[in-house]
From TrEMBL:
Signal peptide: none annotated. GO terms for molecular function: metal ion binding; molybdopterin molybdotransferase activity. One of its GO terms (biological process) is Mo-molybdopterin cofactor biosynthetic process. The keyword Metal-binding applies. Residues 175-307 form the MoaB/Mog domain. This is Molybdopterin molybdenumtransferase. It comes from Acididesulfobacillus acetoxydans. InterPro entries: MoaB/Mog-like_dom_sf (IPR036425), MoaB/Mog_dom (IPR001453), MoeA-like (IPR038987). SMART domains: MoCF_biosynth.
């Protein structure tokens, strides 16, 4: 600790809060502990009656908490994130635009295993709105050793790709094929289409058309081809996803040439979900739960595809951890454990 004249304090670090009293207006901390004194602060400090300050005696090899938090934040930040100004040794990261948050979990574990390093984030693949708080960085002591901070930066740089990133959802052209003889022959009203359309449009994409097919493999395949010919970049096939012998959607997609990623998912609701790729075009077979459950496997998978991911069997398998929806009376997804 060192006592110095205010005029000589530029660049020094305050060791305690300094309160400013404005009679009839306010009373509170004007400068907080850890603040680095700037040239423009000098007149304010003098007006507060501060002619001398107690500041940190700078020591070679030590980094102030504000600078350390900012360096750590910059080391982990990828596209789509905004860094706040440092406050009491903490930097807050917010989303620059709406999209999906991606977190390199192993890198987060590695960083937080270092002494005095703190990186707290939301779960990966969480939908976030523009301006949402997604992460925070800080260090534990007021001053941290340079070699510890440098090691944190090295760990961050050694990771392949950004540790934190927000990916915007692309606007896709989506075709919908509704299967089932009961709907095709007009015996019951289609309830799948409006639900799927609302979700797709809510994610910023467009349903370019919906067609209907009987439980007939060639007819289902023909409907899929029609959407592809019209420029569909994704095709959703609803119905026909159970284990009944006449539910032929999976067979139709396989025989069309689709590369099957999964038929079935470790998510409830959504166990009968299908994902395949016809070239680069994703085709999803949607189980009946999408029609009546507020949140399902569709809500976990589709946004990731719309963000540009090419999902694998392993990606689907990982959904089992956190893949049980509690089916609350009032759905609060994504502010809940589902999909985390």
């Amino acid at each position: 600790m060192q006592k110095i004249r205010v005029e000589d304090a530029v660049g020094s670090v305050l060791l305690h809060d300094l309160t400013q009293i404005l009679p009839g207006e306010s009373k509170g901390p004007r400068f907080k502990k850890g603040h680095i004194v700037r040239e423009e602060d000098i007149p304010v400090l003098l007006s507060m009656g501060k002619e001398n300050l107690y500041v940190w005696d700078r020591t070679e090899g030590l980094v102030h908490e504000n600078e350390a938090a900012e360096r750590l934040a910059r080391a982990v930040t990828g596209p789509g994130l905004h860094l706040s100004e440092p406050s009491e040794g903490k930097i807050t990261l917010t989303a620059e635009y709406s999209g999906l948050l991606y977190v390199a979990e192993e890198a987060v574990y590695d960083l937080n295993s270092l002494e005095y390093i703190v990186l707290a984030t939301l779960h990966s693949h969480r939908p976030v709105e523009k301006g949402a708080k997604v992460a925070g960085t800080r260090v534990v002591p007021l001053m941290i050793e340079e070699n510890i901070l440098a090691e944190a930066e090295r760990v961050a740089q050694s990771h392949n790709g950004p540790i934190l990133e927000v990916k915007a959802l692309r606007s896709w052209k989506v075709g919908v094929v509704t299967t089932g003889s009961e709907v095709y022959h007009g015996r019951i009203k289609d309830k799948f289409g409006p639900v799927v359309r609302a979700k797709i449009e809510g994610w910023g994409s467009t349903v370019i058309g919906q067609s209907f097919a009987d439980d007939d493999i060639p007819m289902i395949q023909g409907r899929i081809r029609e959407h592809l010919d019209k420029g569909a970049e994704m095709v959703l096939v609803t119905g026909g996803m159970s284990v009944d012998p006449d539910d032929v959607t999976p067979t139709a997609i396989r025989e069309l040439g689709g590369e099957l990623v999964t038929y079935g998912s470790p998510v409830l609701p959504g166990a009968m979900f299908l994902l395949a790729y016809l070239g680069d075009i994703p085709i999803m077979g949607l189980p009946g739960c999408v029609m009546y459950s507020k949140t399902t496997v569709f809500d976990l998978v589709a946004p990731r595809v719309l963000a540009g991911e090419h999902l694998t069997k392993r990606d689907i398998a990982k959904l089992g951890h956190g893949g049980l929806c509690l089916e609350c009376k009032v759905c609060t997804y994504p502010h809940c454990p589902f999909g985390k």
